[in-house]
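Dear colleagues,

I hope this message finds you well. In preparation for our joint manuscript, I am sending the Pentapeptide repeat-containing protein (Campylobacter jejuni) sequence together with its predicted structure, so that both groups work from identical material. I would be grateful if you could confirm receipt.
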Amino acid sequence: AIEKINLWKNKFKNRCYFVDSNFGYKDKDNTTKLNFSNTHFKDNVYFNNSEFYSYADFHECEFDDIACFYGVKFHKIPNFSACYFKEQKAVNLINVDIDKLDFKSVEKYIEDNYQDETCENKQEITEEQRNNNCKLKCAKHLKDSFRVIKDVLITQNNTLEAQEWHKLELYAKEKENHINLSVKDREKNADIFKNILIWFNCVLLNVYRNTSDHHNDFLKILNFTVGMIVLYGVFIFFCQACIEPYSKFFNELKSSVIFIIIGILVFLCCIMFYFNRKKSIFAKSIFFIIAMVFIVLYLVTYFYKTNEYKTILY
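The corresponding structure tokens are as follows:
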């Protein structure tokens, strides 16, 4: 077992063999780095059937010839950011095992490694802001790491394996959006529309991950589809059984009152976006949802009252 290794900026003119090796510590909580960064392999390099239990750092490595990772198993997130493969067809990624890498692995990698990033240490920013900037930079590098391997596999027409690395790339993008929200939320004169766009992309990726694992989990897709059908049936039952009493209640109110409530909610939401930057953008979005609920209830009541609701429903 090779528990520690540091080959930073080494140059290997001859072939290198790291075959059937166990790198790092098997302790899951270890944060040790296996440092291959900036290494230049001028000839073939083989990692066949090796296992990496710690973080494998290959960022800015150069591979001039065959780079064989056949049967390699990564227990923790590897870093291939800015890697250069001179001959992408000569990269062997067959049977690479990344089954243990998930969204939590991406989060843990950023938490364990963000302090290695170099960020501006201006006096006007707080320590929390500096840490968020470093985390954001780390997430972007991690996203690029997955993209590098994905591009190699696409070049080799291995689209199925490329999709697995694309899934990890989307995990990193989602985490990047999470961190970006924290950074933008604390910036002065932040663009409200840009914040909403980032929030929407973050929610979209979150839903995409939880409902289908980015089109990689058939059971999740099936469960979500069945759940939506059941939810639609419950919604139909609710409308048929409960809408009439509520429509009578709403009928007694003047429409102006409802519009005043909607206006107040939207106004409060705008106030929070512009002046209260301590709140998370996720919390701010709740006001939008509440406003939408009032609008939907009003429209449902109106359509039911005019006998148009049943036509739309069926």
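For the figure legend, we might mention the following. The longest helix spans residues 218-252. The chain has two domains: 11-189, 223-313.

With kind regards,
E.M.
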